[in-house]
Model the fold of this input.
Amino acid sequence: MSLLLGGIDIGGTKCAAVLGITAGETVNILDKISFPTPATPKEAIVQLGDALEQLLKRNPEGKLHAIGISCGGPLSSKDGLVLSPPNLPGWDRIDVLAPFRERFDVPVGLQNDANACALAEWKWGAGRGSQNMIFLTFGTGMGAGLILNGRLYAGANDMAGEVGHIRLAEDGPLGYGKQGSFEGFCSGGGIARLAFAMAEDWFAAGKSTILSTSKVQLQELTAKDVFEAAHAGDELAMLVIRKVSEQLGRGLAILIDILNPDTIVIGSIYERQESMLAPLVMEELKREALPISLGVCGIVPSGLKDNVGDAASLSVALHELEQQRL
Done:
């Protein structure tokens, strides 16, 4: 049976409402409206409700079955509260479930963005059929969503999967408030900061790089710049990517040894740069992970690719329906 699902994505810079319909083991995105995040939670919730209503009017596909909300944490999925995420100032104990329940009279669920993406990849993407899957964001930050024994695992208070906070080295780029963290090495900003630090030593040794000719240029580096230079054969950029790959492999080994997953799905940067990262990551994994656990774990890029964000909130809607049927 096909299900018409509504999705709400609340982000620090933009919000979106999306409408989708399930079709077997896939989901079709029917329509979407996005806009800059309003100044207050009340404005955002009203505008998101208006946007979803507009989507339903211009896509008369039948009855809406459920709504899913994806938002950066911390939050309480049980109570439906957003609990002051760092990228959403003013969102302190904001009830996001009740307004949508009252307006649309359907089940509404809330999950943090990493859990939402994990559900989407598990239901409709590269994790289909998995019983024990980890989804890693590897984009602006490094977070994880966990599917364990065929169920979403959120932990005691929705804080499971904060892998970006794991310290992988005593020294290294700053990420998630910690030097040398998983997020410090394996995120867009972390890669740029690592390149900046390594380039300073590179210049001090009298070497050149196509990454930059001055400190001013260095400060404007992005992860995309680093990968482009590495693909062009720049020695420094290739060393940066090797360091990132080693730390990614080390972080994956910790997760494999502890959780024994059958699948790890990695999004964003890994999905776009798999050909460069995967061989180096596997080298480190073979050194660090238990062979018997590594042997049963597939490490794959996001199957939903650029659609994972839209599918994420819809997967929360489906998850809420399934939970209510248990």
In short: The chain has eleven helices and 15 strands. The two ends are 18 Å apart (CA to CA).
